[in-house]
Amino acid sequence: MGIDQALEISVSGINANRIHMEIISSNLANINTTRTLQGGPYRRKEPVFSEKPLEFSEALGAAQKKLSGGIEVSEIAEDPTPFQKVFNPGHPDADSEGFVSLPNVSMSKEMVDMIYVSKLYEANITAYNATKTMAQQALQIQ
User: Fold this and answer.
1) Tally of domains within the chain
2) I want to staple 44 with a disulfide (CB 3.0 to 4.6 A). Which of 4, 79, 113, 120 is the partner?
3) DSSP states along 43-80
4) CB 29: neighbour CB atoms within 10 A?
5) Which domain range does residue 115 map to?
6) Residue 96 lies in a domain
């Protein structure tokens, strides 16, 4: 694996974590949204990660080494967990029994995910900087 590929893998991790953090922000921003354009309450979103494929020339050269091209967000899926039901008959979105369906977003889960993703982001930045330092030191070998 070359230094440029190591840098690209770190950058792909940084970009995937940035997208994940944006999704967490969206979930937190919509924690009380009971009506969306699709109808019904907001449904929590989750990123689905997949291996980023190599270009053909890279794959051909790395066929023996089983190298990957990094990570990417392949899709943004909706969390299938059920909505929270709260009794609030005065709410405009209450059903005939007086219950309101609230989004399936948990503040504590989102905060834990945010801390986890920020640590992953930090680890990818550290790996990128370490690779960059190795490249710079390799250029100074005499």
Assistant:
1) 1
2) 79
3) --EEEEEEEPPPPHHHHHHTTTTT----EEEEEEEEP-
4) 11
5) 3-80+107-139
6) no
pLDDT in tens, 38-67: 888 999 999 999 887 766 666 666 655 555
Q: Is residue 14 part of a domain?
A: yes
How far from 137 is each of 10, 20, 130, 133, CA to CA, in Å? Answer: 19, 33, 11, 6
Tell me the residue ranges of DSSP E strands in 1-142: 45-51, 71-78, 84-87, 99-102
- Angle at the Cα of 17 (from 75 to 27), degrees rounded to 5? 65
Task: Report the alpha-carbon distance of residue 55 to residue 17 in Å, rounded.
Answer: 22
User: What are the pLDDT tens digits along the chain (142 aa)?
Assistant: 678 888 888 999 999 999 999 999 999 999 999 999 888 899 999 999 988 776 666 666 665 555 567 888 999 999 999 999 999 999 999 999 999 999 999 999 999 999 999 999 999 999 999 999 998 988 887 6
